[in-house]
């Protein structure tokens, strides 16, 4: 008998995590369908997706950007999209043997439209950031048949409240796979990797990161720069935004900084001594790989000052928050000159994010739940 699984996720990073969980389920013959609630989805093309799907002006961050972002989303049809999502999930009731929500408590609540009991991979929240709110705890208590917390501290806190929470590993670290790309750099070259993010803000963020690179190059002329462009961002858009850039086959030169554009994120971070990031998941993965991350807020909807402070609480000393690209550049120069500080902060990042292997362990529990009929 074919076992049917529905994955519900609310974010690009969450889509990728859900897709990693889907692999082992499909390997044993389960039929997997997915519903990304934010954007159009970042799943492999062979995973069927439910509709409606639409990219909102805020990129899914309307509650983070205040009335302006919410107003733009409302004008773009947010309420109609939400009602359509609710109808779609209600129509999936009793069609699946297991429903899995990947994201936050809102995602869990939405997924419960398809099943009264949902397996919940809580990827967004951690007690290292803040305590869970009353509403989130209420939703988890009523709707989560199992909770896979992103870190042991969070699992312990939820379990102390009587919730079925365990920490089996952070699936984000399973998504970091290098291909051995060397970028043609000398082995002894000092490298700074720049992460502009995966949202619509990325080209504008890249401009600020390029300014930081110029300031670093003025202090340390031998430093090389890798600009890691996410699959959701067109490299052409990034290049077009860079001011007074001289394009090359592998990227562009801005001032005294030569930027190599690449989609090989894992290799770019592995090669770096320091990372300067304006990203969500990518910053966390870089910290988990043992690289100190310097960050500063941007003008867009994702990497706001509030989000930066939240990420700092999550990553601790692995991330250094700064005010702007100038301070970020000065901090990066200091780190490049201090190996001990780099290694110390890198160790914190590895400990905060944990080792890979979470997707296999979580998928094994999901398979057990399938065998028990979803309970």
Name the descriptors:
14 helices; 42% helix; Rossmann fold; 375 residues; globular; six-stranded parallel beta sheet
Can you describe this structure?
The chain is an alpha/beta fold. It is built from 14 helices and 14 strands. An eight-stranded mixed beta sheet has the order 9-10-11-8-7-12-13-14, with helices on both faces. Strands 2-1-3-4-5-6 form a six-stranded parallel beta sheet, sandwiched between helices. Helix 7 (202-219) links the parallel strand 7 and strand 8 (224-228). Helix 7 (202-219) crosses helix 12 and helix 10 (281-288) packs across helix 13. The longest helix has 18 residues, at 202-219. It is globular, with a radius of gyration of 21 Å.
Count of separate structural domains: 2
Nearest-integer average pLDDT: 92
Number of strands: 14
- Report the sheet with the most strands, covering strand number, pairing sense and barrel closure: 8 strands, mixed
Helix content: 40-55%
Give the CATH topology of the largest domain.
Rossmann fold
Terminal residue distance: 17 Å
* N-to-C SSE string, H for helix and E for strand: EHEHHEHEHEHEEHEHEEEHEHEHEHHH
Return the structural class: alpha/beta
CATH superfamily of the largest domain: Glycogen Phosphorylase B
* CATH uppermost class of the largest domain: Alpha Beta
Radius of gyration: 21 Å
In the CATH hierarchy, the architecture of the largest domain is 3-Layer(aba) Sandwich
Strand arrangement, major sheet: 9-10-11-8-7-12-13-14
Shape: globular
By DSSP (H or I, 4+ residues per run), the number of helices equals 14
Contiguous low-pLDDT stretches (5 residues minimum) are none
What percentage of the residues does DSSP assign to strands (E)? 15-25%
């Amino acid at each position: 008998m074919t076992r049917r699984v529905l994955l519900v996720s609310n974010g690009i990073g969450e889509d990728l995590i859900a897709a990693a969980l889907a692999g082992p389920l499909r390997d044993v013959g389960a039929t997997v369908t997915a519903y990304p609630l934010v954007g159009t989805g970042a799943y492999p093309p062979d995973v069927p997706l439910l509709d409606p799907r639409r990219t909102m002006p805020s990129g899914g961050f309307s509650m983070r950007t205040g009335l302006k972002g919410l107003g733009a989303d409302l004008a773009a049809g947010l309420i109609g999209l939400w009602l359509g999502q609710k109808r779609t999930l209600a129509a999936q009731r009793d069609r699946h043997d297991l429903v899995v929500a990947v994201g936050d408590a809102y995602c869990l609540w939405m997924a419960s439209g398809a099943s009264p009991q949902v397996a919940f991979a809580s990827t967004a929240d951690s007690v290292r950031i803040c305590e869970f709110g009353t509403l989130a705890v209420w939703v988890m208590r009523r709707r989560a048949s199992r909770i896979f917390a992103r870190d042991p501290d969070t699992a312990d806190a939820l379990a102390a409240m009587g919730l079925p929470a365990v920490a089996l590993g952070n699936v984000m670290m399973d998504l970091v796979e290098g291909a051995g790309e060397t970028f043609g750099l000398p082995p002894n070259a000092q490298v700074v990797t720049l992460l502009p993010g995966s949202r619509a803000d990325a080209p504008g963020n890249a401009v600020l990161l390029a300014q930081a690179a110029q300031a670093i190059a003025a202090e340390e002329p031998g430093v090389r720069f890798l600009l890691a462009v996410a699959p959701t961002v067109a490299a052409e858009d990034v290049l077009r935004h860079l001011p007074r850039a001289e394009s090359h086959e592998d990227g562009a030169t801005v001032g005294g900084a030569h930027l190599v554009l690449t989609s090989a994120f894992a290799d770019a971070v592995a090669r770096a001594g320091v990372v300067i990031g304006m990203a969500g998941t990518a910053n966390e993965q870089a910290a988990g790989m043992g690289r100190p991350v310097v960050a500063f807020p941007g003008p867009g909807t994702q990497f706001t000052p509030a989000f930066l402070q939240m990420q700092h609480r999550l990553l601790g000393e692995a991330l250094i928050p700064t005010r702007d690209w100038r301070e970020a550049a000065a901090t990066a120069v200091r780190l490049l000159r201090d190996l001990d500080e780099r290694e110390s902060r890198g160790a914190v990042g590895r400990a905060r994010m944990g080792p890979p292997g979470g997707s296999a362990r979580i998928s094994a529990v999901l398979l057990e739940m399938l065998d028990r009929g979803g309970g």
